[in-house]
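JOB MANIFEST
job_type = single_chain_structure
chain_count = 1
residues = 447
[input]
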Amino acid sequence: MTTKDAIKTSVLSKRWRSTWTSNQYMSFSLPPDSSRKCKSFITFVDSVLSRCTAIKAKRFLFDAPCYALIRSSLDRWLQFAIEHGIEEVSVSLHYWHHKVYVLPRILFCCTTLVSLRVSQCCFSVFGTVNWCSLKTLRIDYAKLNDDGMMRVLSGSPVLEFLELKSCEGVKHIMVESKSFRELAIDSHKFCGQVSMLKISAPHLLKLRLLGNSRGGEFRLDEVSSLIEAELNFNMEIFALDKVKAHADLVKGLLNRLHHVTILVMGSWCLQALSLMEARNMFLPSLKCRHLILLGAAGHKGVPEAIAKILESTRLLEKLSLQTTCTPDSAIELNTDSVGRRVFAGEEFWNFVKWRIYQCLMHLRHVEIVDGGASLLAWEPVLSLLKFLLQNALLLDKIVIDSTNSKSSQAFEPSPLLEVARILLSHPKCSPSAKVILRYPFQGCPSV
C-alpha cells in the first residue's frame, strides 16, 4: 500500500485519522507522463514527511519520472529517511529527456541501510562508502566503473546479495567478504575493446548470469565455493564466424563451474553446446547432482547438447526440463549451415546410450515443467523420457508439472494426458518408477 492509500484509510475511523503519521513504511509513486501533477506531488510528499511522528523509518520506496523538480526534492527526502535510521530504500526513476539523478553523498554513509535498490540513477562514488549494515544491493540501468564498484563492495562488509541489471562500465567484480553469498548479472552491457567481465568471489555460493549480454564474455577467476550456478544469458544470433567462440565461452564457464551441485542452463547456452560436436570438443566432468535445462528442449540440435551434459554429469540424481509452446526462432540454430543431422528421437538416444550410461546409474527424479506445449512440441522431450524410463536403473518418478502453465486456462489437458498414457505403457527399467501428472483443472486426474 502506498502512503497515499494509507492516508485515505483515515476517513474510515476517527481513531485512524492520525495513525498514518506514525507509519514507518513510506511509499510514493508518480506515474509516467504526469508532469502536470509534479508540483502537487512534491507538495504532498513534503506534507507527509513534515507530519511524520515516527522516530525510526523502516522503508522508503520511491518511483517517479526524473523531472527537474523531482531531482531537486529527492535529496531532502532521502536525507529525511536517513536521519530517521532508514533500513530499506528503493529509488526508481524513469528517464526524462536524458536527465539522470545523481545519488546524494549522504546516502553512501548511511550506516543503518540494510537493503538498497536504485534504478536509472547516477551511481557516482567518491571517497569512502560506509554501508556497514547493507545486506542486499540492486543496481539497475547505471553506468559504473571498477573503482566505484570496489569502493561499494569494500564499504559493505556484510553484503550477502548483489544484482547488477543492464549496467555498463564494470569489468571486474572482486569480493573477498565471507558474507557474500549470491551474485546476479542480468543483461550486462559490454563496452570498449576489452569486452570482458571478470568475477572473483571465493566465498560466493550462488551465481546467476542472465539476459541479453551481447558483445562480450564472462570470465570466472575464483569461485571455488559455488554450490549453484545459472547460465541463462544470450549473446547474439548464431553465425558461422562465431560458432567456435560461443562454444568456447560456454565450455570455459563450465570448466570453472565443474564443482557446483546445482546447474541451470538456458536456451542460448544449450544451443552453443550443440555445435561443439562438429569441432570434437568435450565438456569437463561435472559434479552436478541437480541439472535444470530451461526452455529449449525442442530446439534443433539441443538434444545433442543435453546428451553432452548428461555424459559429463555422472553423479546426476535429478533432471529438470522446461518445455516451450514454440521454438524461439530469434536464436534458433541454422542447422543446415553447420552440418547437423536430422534429429530422430528414440534412435538418437539409443545411439548415445553408451556415452551416458554412468548418469543413468544414479538418476532418480525427472521433472518436466510444461508451459502449455502441444503434443508435437512434446516429441523431443517424450523421446528422452521414454529412453530414461527404459534405461535409468534407480529412477523413482517422472513428474510432469503444468500447474503454472500460461495457457492452462485456454486448452484442454489432452496433450498431457496422452503423454502420460504413452509413458505409463512404456517399458521401464526401475520397477518403482512412477509417472505423476500435475494439472490445475479440477477433476483432471493425477496418474
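[summary]
The first strand starts at residue 25 and ends at 29.
DSSP finds eleven helices and 20 strands in the chain.
exit_status = 0
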